[in-house]
Amino acid sequence: MDSKSVNVPLQANSLDDVLVQITEQPKRQYSQQEIDEARDNLVLMNDRVFFGTFTDNKNNHIIKGIADALRKIHALAPIPEVERTTVQKMSLLDVLGRGMVGDLLGEALMLNIALEVQKGSQDGYAVRGTITSGNAMRIQFNPGDKFTEAPDVIGINILGFRLPELENQKIFCSRIVRAEYDTKELFLEDRYSDYYIELPKMNDYTKEILPEEYHDLWDICCIFKAKIKEHEEVIRMQSIVNPTALNLSDEVRRTVARNDVVNETLDRRGELLEFQEYVKKQAQSEGQKGKEEMIITAFMNNVSAEAIEAMRKNAGITEARLDELKKQAQSA
Quick one: 210 and 194 in the same domain? Predict the structure, then answer.
Protein backbone atom coordinates (compact mmCIF):
# COMPACT_ATOMS: atom_id res chain seq x y z
CA MET A 1 0.00 0.00 0.00
CA ASP A 2 1.29 3.46 -0.84
CA SER A 3 2.13 5.85 1.96
CA LYS A 4 -0.22 8.73 2.56
CA SER A 5 0.93 11.96 0.97
CA VAL A 6 2.21 14.33 3.64
CA ASN A 7 4.59 17.26 3.40
CA VAL A 8 7.45 16.69 5.83
CA PRO A 9 9.87 19.60 6.38
CA LEU A 10 13.19 18.88 4.73
CA GLN A 11 15.10 20.58 7.55
CA ALA A 12 15.23 18.87 10.94
CA ASN A 13 17.68 18.77 13.81
CA SER A 14 17.74 14.99 13.86
CA LEU A 15 16.06 11.89 12.50
CA ASP A 16 14.18 11.75 15.78
CA ASP A 17 12.57 15.10 14.86
CA VAL A 18 11.60 13.76 11.45
CA LEU A 19 10.00 10.69 13.01
CA VAL A 20 8.01 12.82 15.43
CA GLN A 21 6.88 15.17 12.65
CA ILE A 22 5.70 12.23 10.56
CA THR A 23 3.66 10.68 13.35
CA GLU A 24 2.04 14.02 14.20
CA GLN A 25 0.55 14.29 10.71
CA PRO A 26 -3.22 13.70 10.36
CA LYS A 27 -3.96 10.00 9.99
CA ARG A 28 -5.29 8.65 6.75
CA GLN A 29 -8.74 7.05 6.58
CA TYR A 30 -8.61 3.51 5.19
CA SER A 31 -11.33 1.75 3.26
CA GLN A 32 -12.88 -1.38 4.73
CA GLN A 33 -11.32 -3.38 1.91
CA GLU A 34 -7.85 -2.13 2.84
CA ILE A 35 -8.47 -2.96 6.48
CA ASP A 36 -9.76 -6.46 5.72
CA GLU A 37 -6.85 -7.25 3.40
CA ALA A 38 -4.32 -6.01 5.94
CA ARG A 39 -6.02 -7.98 8.74
CA ASP A 40 -5.73 -11.26 6.83
CA ASN A 41 -1.98 -10.78 6.39
CA LEU A 42 -1.10 -9.81 9.95
CA VAL A 43 0.96 -12.12 12.14
CA LEU A 44 1.53 -12.33 15.87
CA MET A 45 5.11 -11.17 15.26
CA ASN A 46 3.64 -7.76 14.35
CA ASP A 47 4.18 -5.23 17.15
CA ARG A 48 0.56 -4.03 17.39
CA VAL A 49 -0.83 -7.57 17.28
CA PHE A 50 1.56 -8.72 20.00
CA PHE A 51 0.74 -5.67 22.12
CA GLY A 52 -3.00 -6.13 21.68
CA THR A 53 -2.85 -9.82 22.56
CA PHE A 54 -0.90 -9.46 25.80
CA THR A 55 -1.47 -5.92 27.08
CA ASP A 56 -3.58 -5.13 30.15
CA ASN A 57 -2.43 -8.27 31.93
CA LYS A 58 -4.20 -10.51 29.41
CA ASN A 59 -3.51 -14.15 28.58
CA ASN A 60 -1.01 -14.86 31.33
CA HIS A 61 -1.85 -18.55 30.97
CA ILE A 62 -0.42 -18.44 27.44
CA ILE A 63 2.89 -17.10 28.74
CA LYS A 64 2.96 -20.00 31.17
CA GLY A 65 2.15 -22.40 28.33
CA ILE A 66 5.06 -21.09 26.23
CA ALA A 67 7.49 -21.42 29.14
CA ASP A 68 6.22 -24.92 29.96
CA ALA A 69 6.67 -26.02 26.33
CA LEU A 70 10.28 -24.84 26.41
CA ARG A 71 11.01 -26.49 29.74
CA LYS A 72 9.45 -29.74 28.56
CA ILE A 73 12.25 -30.13 26.00
CA HIS A 74 14.75 -30.58 28.84
CA ALA A 75 12.38 -32.50 31.14
CA LEU A 76 11.97 -29.55 33.51
CA ALA A 77 8.86 -29.11 35.66
CA PRO A 78 6.09 -26.68 34.62
CA ILE A 79 6.24 -23.20 36.14
CA PRO A 80 3.65 -21.78 38.59
CA GLU A 81 0.75 -19.71 37.32
CA VAL A 82 1.82 -16.30 36.01
CA GLU A 83 0.23 -13.68 38.25
CA ARG A 84 1.00 -10.44 36.40
CA THR A 85 2.35 -9.35 33.03
CA THR A 86 3.37 -5.95 31.68
CA VAL A 87 4.04 -5.18 28.02
CA GLN A 88 6.78 -2.62 27.59
CA LYS A 89 5.56 0.63 26.06
CA MET A 90 6.93 0.92 22.53
CA SER A 91 8.44 4.21 21.45
CA LEU A 92 8.28 5.50 17.90
CA LEU A 93 11.97 4.89 17.36
CA ASP A 94 11.62 1.34 18.65
CA VAL A 95 8.97 0.61 16.03
CA LEU A 96 10.38 2.45 13.03
CA GLY A 97 14.06 2.29 13.82
CA ARG A 98 14.96 -0.93 15.59
CA GLY A 99 11.86 -2.85 14.55
CA MET A 100 11.06 -3.89 18.10
CA VAL A 101 7.93 -5.99 18.32
CA GLY A 102 7.50 -5.94 22.08
CA ASP A 103 8.83 -6.92 25.47
CA LEU A 104 6.78 -8.70 28.06
CA LEU A 105 7.79 -9.30 31.66
CA GLY A 106 5.75 -11.62 33.81
CA GLU A 107 6.10 -12.49 37.46
CA ALA A 108 5.01 -15.78 39.00
CA LEU A 109 5.98 -16.09 42.67
CA MET A 110 9.79 -15.72 42.59
CA LEU A 111 10.16 -16.49 38.93
CA ASN A 112 10.48 -13.73 36.32
CA ILE A 113 9.83 -14.33 32.63
CA ALA A 114 11.27 -11.98 30.03
CA LEU A 115 9.69 -12.58 26.63
CA GLU A 116 10.80 -10.69 23.53
CA VAL A 117 9.53 -11.11 19.99
CA GLN A 118 11.65 -9.65 17.17
CA LYS A 119 10.39 -9.93 13.61
CA GLY A 120 13.19 -8.30 11.61
CA SER A 121 16.92 -8.97 11.86
CA GLN A 122 18.75 -6.72 14.31
CA ASP A 123 22.52 -6.34 14.69
CA GLY A 124 23.61 -7.37 18.16
CA TYR A 125 20.33 -9.00 19.11
CA ALA A 126 22.14 -11.65 21.19
CA VAL A 127 23.45 -8.81 23.37
CA ARG A 128 19.97 -7.31 23.61
CA GLY A 129 18.49 -10.63 24.69
CA THR A 130 21.20 -11.08 27.32
CA ILE A 131 20.65 -7.56 28.68
CA THR A 132 16.88 -8.06 28.83
CA SER A 133 17.32 -11.28 30.77
CA GLY A 134 19.76 -9.54 33.11
CA ASN A 135 17.29 -6.72 33.71
CA ALA A 136 14.63 -9.28 34.59
CA MET A 137 16.85 -10.50 37.42
CA ARG A 138 16.24 -7.17 39.19
CA ILE A 139 12.45 -7.39 39.15
CA GLN A 140 11.12 -8.32 42.60
CA PHE A 141 14.65 -7.94 44.00
CA ASN A 142 15.64 -4.82 45.90
CA PRO A 143 18.80 -3.58 47.65
CA GLY A 144 19.10 -5.31 50.98
CA ASP A 145 17.19 -8.44 49.91
CA LYS A 146 18.84 -11.79 50.47
CA PHE A 147 20.56 -13.07 47.35
CA THR A 148 19.34 -16.56 48.10
CA GLU A 149 15.80 -15.23 47.69
CA ALA A 150 16.41 -13.49 44.35
CA PRO A 151 13.97 -14.54 41.61
CA ASP A 152 14.80 -17.16 39.01
CA VAL A 153 14.65 -15.94 35.40
CA ILE A 154 13.57 -17.47 32.11
CA GLY A 155 14.47 -15.40 29.05
CA ILE A 156 12.47 -16.23 25.91
CA ASN A 157 13.38 -14.75 22.53
CA ILE A 158 11.19 -15.57 19.53
CA LEU A 159 12.98 -14.42 16.38
CA GLY A 160 11.92 -14.08 12.76
CA PHE A 161 15.54 -14.45 11.63
CA ARG A 162 18.58 -16.64 12.19
CA LEU A 163 20.90 -15.51 14.96
CA PRO A 164 24.55 -15.34 13.75
CA GLU A 165 25.85 -16.53 17.12
CA LEU A 166 23.84 -19.76 16.68
CA GLU A 167 24.65 -20.48 13.04
CA ASN A 168 26.07 -23.90 13.94
CA GLN A 169 22.99 -24.86 15.92
CA LYS A 170 20.64 -26.78 13.62
CA ILE A 171 17.56 -27.11 15.82
CA PHE A 172 15.20 -24.11 15.94
CA CYS A 173 15.31 -23.73 19.72
CA SER A 174 18.46 -23.18 21.77
CA ARG A 175 18.81 -23.04 25.54
CA ILE A 176 21.64 -20.87 26.85
CA VAL A 177 22.94 -21.41 30.39
CA ARG A 178 26.08 -20.46 32.29
CA ALA A 179 28.91 -22.94 32.63
CA GLU A 180 32.48 -23.06 33.92
CA TYR A 181 34.65 -22.62 30.84
CA ASP A 182 37.24 -25.41 31.28
CA THR A 183 35.17 -28.14 32.86
CA LYS A 184 31.87 -27.20 31.11
CA GLU A 185 30.22 -27.75 34.49
CA LEU A 186 26.87 -25.96 34.55
CA PHE A 187 26.54 -22.94 36.84
CA LEU A 188 23.13 -21.94 38.29
CA GLU A 189 21.42 -23.58 35.32
CA ASP A 190 18.45 -24.44 37.53
CA ARG A 191 17.84 -20.71 38.11
CA TYR A 192 18.74 -18.90 34.90
CA SER A 193 18.00 -19.99 31.32
CA ASP A 194 17.72 -18.05 28.07
CA TYR A 195 15.89 -19.58 25.13
CA TYR A 196 16.33 -18.43 21.53
CA ILE A 197 13.71 -19.63 19.07
CA GLU A 198 14.71 -19.03 15.44
CA LEU A 199 11.51 -19.47 13.43
CA PRO A 200 13.23 -19.75 9.99
CA LYS A 201 15.02 -22.92 11.17
CA MET A 202 11.64 -24.62 11.43
CA ASN A 203 11.70 -24.82 7.63
CA ASP A 204 14.49 -27.39 7.94
CA TYR A 205 12.26 -29.79 9.92
CA THR A 206 8.84 -31.34 10.03
CA LYS A 207 6.94 -32.00 13.21
CA GLU A 208 7.04 -35.74 12.58
CA ILE A 209 10.83 -36.01 12.60
CA LEU A 210 11.26 -34.03 15.82
CA PRO A 211 11.39 -35.73 19.21
CA GLU A 212 7.97 -35.70 20.87
CA GLU A 213 9.12 -33.32 23.59
CA TYR A 214 9.40 -30.60 20.91
CA HIS A 215 5.84 -30.97 19.62
CA ASP A 216 4.17 -28.53 22.05
CA LEU A 217 6.69 -25.81 21.19
CA TRP A 218 6.33 -26.57 17.48
CA ASP A 219 2.56 -26.07 17.69
CA ILE A 220 2.97 -22.72 19.46
CA CYS A 221 5.63 -21.49 17.04
CA CYS A 222 3.41 -22.34 14.06
CA ILE A 223 0.88 -19.81 15.40
CA PHE A 224 3.59 -17.17 15.76
CA LYS A 225 4.68 -17.74 12.15
CA ALA A 226 1.36 -17.95 10.35
CA LYS A 227 -0.66 -15.12 8.83
CA ILE A 228 -4.12 -14.71 10.35
CA LYS A 229 -5.81 -16.01 7.21
CA GLU A 230 -3.67 -19.17 7.35
CA HIS A 231 -4.38 -20.17 10.98
CA GLU A 232 -7.12 -22.70 10.31
CA GLU A 233 -5.17 -24.39 7.53
CA VAL A 234 -1.96 -24.44 9.58
CA ILE A 235 -3.77 -25.96 12.56
CA ARG A 236 -5.16 -28.69 10.30
CA MET A 237 -2.01 -29.35 8.25
CA GLN A 238 0.33 -29.36 11.26
CA SER A 239 -2.08 -31.39 13.40
CA ILE A 240 -1.83 -28.77 16.14
CA VAL A 241 -3.31 -30.08 19.38
CA ASN A 242 -1.43 -28.16 22.07
CA PRO A 243 -4.05 -26.22 24.09
CA THR A 244 -1.82 -23.16 24.45
CA ALA A 245 -1.30 -22.97 20.68
CA LEU A 246 -5.01 -23.34 19.95
CA ASN A 247 -5.94 -20.75 22.56
CA LEU A 248 -3.24 -18.40 21.27
CA SER A 249 -4.71 -18.62 17.77
CA ASP A 250 -8.15 -17.72 19.12
CA GLU A 251 -6.77 -14.76 21.08
CA VAL A 252 -4.76 -13.42 18.15
CA ARG A 253 -7.77 -13.58 15.85
CA ARG A 254 -9.83 -11.83 18.51
CA THR A 255 -7.19 -9.08 18.69
CA VAL A 256 -7.04 -8.41 14.96
CA ALA A 257 -10.82 -8.39 14.69
CA ARG A 258 -10.60 -4.87 16.09
CA ASN A 259 -10.28 -2.26 13.34
CA ASP A 260 -8.20 0.04 15.55
CA VAL A 261 -5.41 -2.56 15.77
CA VAL A 262 -5.34 -2.89 11.97
CA ASN A 263 -5.53 0.89 11.51
CA GLU A 264 -2.52 1.41 13.79
CA THR A 265 -0.58 -1.21 11.84
CA LEU A 266 -1.38 0.52 8.55
CA ASP A 267 -0.41 3.88 10.06
CA ARG A 268 2.97 2.52 11.18
CA ARG A 269 3.58 0.99 7.76
CA GLY A 270 2.80 4.28 6.05
CA GLU A 271 4.99 6.22 8.47
CA LEU A 272 7.89 3.86 7.87
CA LEU A 273 7.56 4.24 4.10
CA GLU A 274 7.40 8.00 4.45
CA PHE A 275 10.45 8.07 6.69
CA GLN A 276 12.40 5.94 4.23
CA GLU A 277 11.34 8.25 1.41
CA TYR A 278 12.51 11.27 3.43
CA VAL A 279 15.90 9.67 4.06
CA LYS A 280 16.18 8.77 0.38
CA LYS A 281 15.43 12.32 -0.77
CA GLN A 282 17.83 13.77 1.76
CA ALA A 283 20.58 11.49 0.55
CA GLN A 284 19.92 12.50 -3.04
CA SER A 285 20.11 16.20 -2.18
CA GLU A 286 23.46 15.98 -0.39
CA GLY A 287 26.96 15.51 -1.75
CA GLN A 288 28.95 12.39 -1.02
CA LYS A 289 30.05 13.73 2.36
CA GLY A 290 26.50 14.63 3.27
CA LYS A 291 25.28 11.20 2.23
CA GLU A 292 27.84 9.51 4.43
CA GLU A 293 26.93 11.77 7.35
CA MET A 294 23.28 10.80 6.91
CA ILE A 295 24.23 7.11 7.05
CA ILE A 296 26.28 7.66 10.22
CA THR A 297 23.31 9.48 11.77
CA ALA A 298 21.05 6.62 10.74
CA PHE A 299 23.33 4.09 12.45
CA MET A 300 23.41 6.22 15.60
CA ASN A 301 19.60 6.35 15.64
CA ASN A 302 19.20 2.58 15.12
CA VAL A 303 17.42 3.01 11.77
CA SER A 304 16.36 -0.29 10.23
CA ALA A 305 18.88 -2.27 8.19
CA GLU A 306 16.57 -2.06 5.15
CA ALA A 307 16.54 1.75 5.23
CA ILE A 308 20.33 1.92 5.65
CA GLU A 309 20.82 -0.48 2.75
CA ALA A 310 18.63 1.78 0.59
CA MET A 311 20.77 4.77 1.64
CA ARG A 312 23.95 2.86 0.78
CA LYS A 313 22.75 2.02 -2.71
CA ASN A 314 21.57 5.58 -3.25
CA ALA A 315 24.94 6.98 -2.27
CA GLY A 316 26.88 4.47 -4.36
CA ILE A 317 28.81 3.37 -1.26
CA THR A 318 30.48 -0.03 -1.11
CA GLU A 319 29.70 -2.47 1.68
CA ALA A 320 33.27 -2.06 2.94
CA ARG A 321 32.78 1.70 3.19
CA LEU A 322 29.45 1.10 4.93
CA ASP A 323 31.25 -0.94 7.58
CA GLU A 324 33.66 1.95 8.11
CA LEU A 325 30.77 4.39 8.56
CA LYS A 326 29.16 2.00 11.05
CA LYS A 327 32.37 1.96 13.10
CA GLN A 328 32.44 5.76 13.04
CA ALA A 329 28.89 5.82 14.35
CA GLN A 330 29.72 3.38 17.13
CA SER A 331 32.70 5.44 18.26
CA ALA A 332 30.90 8.80 18.09
Answer: yes
